[in-house]
Write a structure and sequence with these properties.
The chain is α+β, with helices and mostly antiparallel strands. It is built from 17 helices and 19 strands. The structure holds flavin-adenine dinucleotide. Its cofactor is FAD.
């Protein structure tokens, strides 16, 4: 992806794009993917980096949702299981089968979870990732040595998918770019352009790096801005009532030996009635999540002390070694869009996990809710509105079987796996410069060549783009990321021809953000 080449396309004042997408998270990228599968021309803007919002802060699961099954939302579970299965085939370098174990303490729970998960298997049909089964107490402790043994009766094993959320977003942007989509990070949508009849005909956008402004024309505009959806709805109609109530979920990252195996732990009901996961990911353990109402949408939400305490206390209830604040390598928070309560009511309601598409009078199409797992179907359902908005015919969607950038049947070993077919060209960069073989941090396998690649091919513009979303070091170990930042800054500055002032200001920005991922001891 070449950012400058894509920016240059915005100079064309006559071009009319079929679809302009606001938002480069899973929702917006799903829309772009589906639109290109139907031969439409697409331009996509994110005011920050791809997946800077909620889409890099998920639990990283591709799941039908065992919880939604318990709630009787069968349609959603069917849909999500199909998408899960397809994504494992379309992006095998990023998504894989992850066994989960639910610890069982009573005979009644054994029966309930065994039956429920058999149904989950059956619903996945041919796309099932593996059979669920009850295992004995001994087997459970063998597979999760870090689990508390007191009162344990056994475990129920089931399978779901796991993935790298920010990298999937990036690979989707690359797939779209390769198919002719003009994808741009750090370009903010400032206002909507309308004709005399009040119909939207385009967007005013600005490049946040050069401060240059552009006007683009589009037949259909999609608002895929997650918790920021109200801001775009209010650009359309300043009197529009607020629709979204952000709700925060945090994750703590611990060393893998707190569980001690390859299996993930799933606690179906915590003190506040939520699900708690502890999932191995990139050599660490991701534990979460919470559900805390927040007043305002934020790109960089911060975990609250009470949320940190809650996750630590809940995990301690199940783990033989109690995790403490000292054990936390990183903490990250994300915001889900809940439906704001109506005037006079205090109750919030989660926007159904099955997404919603709203068509405004002006022709603005807003995609909201849903989850990462179903991003493609969400995109398909949104693009279906094209005929309604423009009166033009639409070809059938082909996104269900589209391979995603990087997809290969021979997934490379170790940390190179997530690069898929890009791994080799990255390794070959070291022939251009031997010093790019050097590691960025002694505790991580990533090397300097990955930074060069991120700048040349993956539209990385800042240190944070590299350390948070191209390489996930900030999410895995915030202190390690802070330590690696000067090396990354120097490599980027050389490659992008920036000076010492850029390095100093970038490092100051990165350290300020990264400090939010550190826990005060
Ligand atoms: C704690 C937590 C855990 C989760 N775990 C899972 C999970 O394990 N599996 C799963 O399937 N789902 C999960 N989800 C749900 C999933 O993460 C979200 O559904 C998904 O990431 C939402 O993506 P989005 O594109 O709608 O929003 P976002 O990712 O927030 O993207 C919106 C984008 O819009 C951009 N934007 C905003 N305003 C403008 C503007 N004016 N101009 C240009 N760009 C703009 C922002 O910069 C942002 O990047 C989880 C959610 C949370 C909160």
């Amino acid at each position: 992806m070449n950012r400058q080449e894509n920016l240059d396309q915005l100079q064309d004042k006559i071009k009319i794009w079929d679809i302009a997408v606001i938002g480069g998270g899973s929702s917006g990228l799903g829309v772009a993917l589906d639109a290109i599968s139907r031969g439409l021309s697409v331009v996509l803007f994110d005011k920050a980096d791809f997946a800077k919002g909620t889409s890099s802060r998920s639990t990283k699961l591709l799941h039908g949702g065992v919880r939604y099954l318990a709630q009787g939302d069968v349609g959603l579970v069917f849909e999500a299981l199909k998408e899960r299965g397809k994504l494992l085939k379309n992006a095998p370098h990023l998504a894989h089968d992850q066994p989960f174990i639910i610890p069982i303490f009573t005979w009644k729970d054994r029966l309930m979870y065994s039956v429920g998960l058999k149904m989950y298997d059956w619903m996945a049909g041919r796309l099932s990732l593996g059979k669920s089964e009850f295992i004995s107490k001994e087997e459970t402790l063998k597979r999760i040595p870090g689990l508390k043994s007191k009162g344990l009766y056994g475990g129920v094993v089931y399978h779901d998918g796991q993935f790298d959320d920010a990298r999937l977003a990036l690979n989707l942007a690359q797939s779209a770019d390769e198919a002719g989509t003009c994808v741009l990070n750090y370009v903010s949508v400032n206002s909507l352009v309308k004709d005399e009849a009040g119909k939207i005909t385009g967007l005013h956008v600005s490049d946040k790096l050069s401060k240059k402004k552009y006007k683009i024309n589009a037949k259909m505009v999609v608002n895929a801005t997650g918790v920021f959806a109200d801001k775009i709805l209010q650009m359309d109609d300043p009197t529009a009532p607020r629709m979204i109530q952000p709700s925060q979920g945090i994750h703590l990252v611990l060393d893998l030996d707190f569980l001690g195996g390859k299996d993930a732990l799933m606690i179906p009901k915590t003190r506040d009635g939520r699900v708690l996961f502890a999932v191995p990911w990139h050599g660490k353990l991701v534990v979460g999540t919470t559900d805390t109402l927040r007043e305002k949408p934020k790109l960089e939400p911060e975990a609250l002390q009470k949320e940190i305490d809650f996750v630590l206390e809940t995990a301690a209830g199940y783990l033989a070694r109690k995790p403490t604040r000292e054990d936390v390598r990183s903490v990250f928070a994300g915001l889900r869009p809940l439906a704001r309560p109506k005037e006079g009511s205090t109750k919030t309601k989660e926007i159904s996990r099955s997404h919603k598409v709203i068509l405004s009078e002006s022709g603005l199409v807003t995609l909201t809710g849903g989850k990462w797992t179903t991003f493609r179907k969400m995109g398909e359902d949104t693009v279906e509105y094209f005929t309604k908005v423009t009166g033009e015919k639409l070809r059938d969607s082909k996104s269900l079987d589209m391979k995603i950038h990087g997809a290969t049947s021979r997934v490379p070993e170790g940390h190179w796996g997530i690069y898929g077919f890009d791994a080799k060209p990255i390794q070959e960069l070291t022939k251009e410069n031997k010093s790019w073989e050097a590691k960025l941090h002694p505790d991580f396998p990533n090397i300097a060549a990955e930074v060069i690649w991120a700048v040349r091919e993956e539209m990385a513009m800042t240190i944070e783009d590299v350390l948070a979303r191209r390489i996930r070091m900030l999410f895995l170990d915030a202190q390690a990321a802070i330590d690696a930042a000067p090396t990354v800054a120097k490599l980027m500055a050389e490659e992008m021809k920036h000076d010492e002032t850029w390095i100093a200001s970038e490092l100051a920005d990165f350290n300020k953000t990264a400090s939010k991922y550190l826990i005060k001891k």
